[in-house]
Amino acid sequence: MKKDSRKILDKRAASLALFLSILWSGNPVGTKLGLLDTTPLRLGWMRFLAGGVVVLIYSLITKKSFKLKRDEYLPLFVLGILFSVQLIFLNVGQNYTPASHAVLIFTTYPLWAGIIAHFVVPGDKLTKFRILGVIIAYLGIVVVFLNNLSESSYDYILGDFLCLICAILLAIRQIFISNLGQSVSQHKMLASQAIFGIVIFIIGSYIFENPTNSFFTKNIVISVIYTGVIIAGFAFMAQHWLLRTYLPSRVIFISLSQPIFGVLLSWIILNEDIGLELYIGSILVIIGSGLAQKKNKP
After folding, report:
1. Contact 16, 238 (CB under 8 A)
2. What are phi and psi of 7, to 5 degrees?
């Protein structure tokens, strides 16, 4: 069996992962901003188009080849479908719940990834601290859901549930990317996600939506630049490199900082109310994620 070459994070890689985590914390806020002026699927394909242009420019500059090998078609097809379905849950879910809720629930994906990595990534096992961290962090999500139930916020419950499914799918995709990246080039994976996202979201928007507003409002432009160029372009490329080079759960668990920045951005940019349940939920998610990073013997 070929030895797994992925490494434990060093300081430089951890710093990059933290910077990406801060950028990712603004992704639900940027998406929610665009949804103020347009529909979820329409915003989705606009985002993927912007990100795809960034990937294409990078590939042309670095003279990357897009010629596929026979054994690359199926995994890239699966990746493209998985990516598109995950983003459908994200965009539609955020249409029903505040960005601050989406940020907190979205942040659980490192915990799901840690569980999945235990079974499919050699040397990336769950420990006692990780298991305890998972339990504590999930309690934070339960707090948010119970608050919605007590207030009969049924739209929020639907939105939160869809975002939770998105978080699980993202965890699966991140592990899949880490494993696939050992044999398939980064730019091919990025291109497959962009192409599938554009095609599926355009078709879905045409069938299920009937947007009548302008393509280019201020909110939409800002949203597409941030979620498309910065996140789907730069952040995706950097994250793919980290996942290919380092043990995936170690990379993904750095995302424990997202609730702090994301909730603050939701308050500053979207003027969303931050209830007590979000403070409690964020604290539990951060504590749980921190424990999950501690080292001990399985």
Report:
1. yes
2. -110, 165
